[in-house]
Amino acid sequence: MKSIRINRQPIRTLVAILAVAAVPVGAVAVPALAGASTTTTTATCPTGWGSLPEASTYRGAGTLTGVRTGRHACYDRVVFDVKGKPSWFRVEYVKNVSTVGQGEIVPLRGGAKLQIVLSVPSYDDAGRSTYNPGNPDELTNVSGYRTFRQLATAGSFEGETTIGVGVRARLPFRVFTLPGSDGTSRIVVDVAHSW
Question: What residues of the chain score a pLDDT lower than 70?
């Protein structure tokens, strides 16, 4: 009797294909990259902010010395550095931000315009500049920010400084002050990424 040889290669291939197809997509193990974290965290964003005007009820004394911005998980932030005590502020959405003294419209990118008025000048008692940005139309580089589109100065006049912020849309914001060291303080404006 003649021996019959069975080719088992196609059967092994078929079994391997069926085994892979039976594994759910989410169950496939993927090796972690060296140095990479395999855990993810979801930020819990603050709530209760609004888009109506906000103003403080006190008056401080100081001068503006710097403007900084930062990106956070839930909002974009602008910080105004003040030499002196925390100062009065008014923050509100407006149709247009205008230069102080002249009343010319400050062009701002974005779907909404936030006007920030600080009762701190950007000059000292002798008239010397305490904050002199390199580009008054681009106070900081906000490319890549989720909410901010542009920060521009509208000028400093009669003890007040006005800043215009181009925002992606009319989004909720909050304003607060923080004391610093050596007689400094900060005025902080956070604008949320979403409602």
Answer: 1-42
Q: Is the pTM of this model over 0.85?
A: no
Q: How many Å apart are CA 123 and CA 128, to the nearest integer?
A: 5
**How would you class 20 by CB atoms within 10 Å of its CB: exposed for 0-12, middle for 13-18, buried for 19 or more?**
exposed
Contacts of 140 (CB under 8 A, 6+ apart): 67, 68, 69, 78, 151
Q: If you ran DSSP here, which 8-state letter would residue 123 be given? A: B
From the list 183, 191, 194, the residue with the least C-alpha distance to 63 is 183
The tens digit of pLDDT for each residue in 101-114 reads 899 999 999 999 99
Cα-Cα-Cα-Cα dihedral sign, residues 34, 40, 41, 43:
positive
- Partners of 188 in the β-ladder: 79, 176
Tokens 């990479």 correspond to what residue? 36
> pLDDT tens for residues 150-171?
999 999 999 999 999 999 999 9
Q: Token pair for residue 168?
A: 């992606």
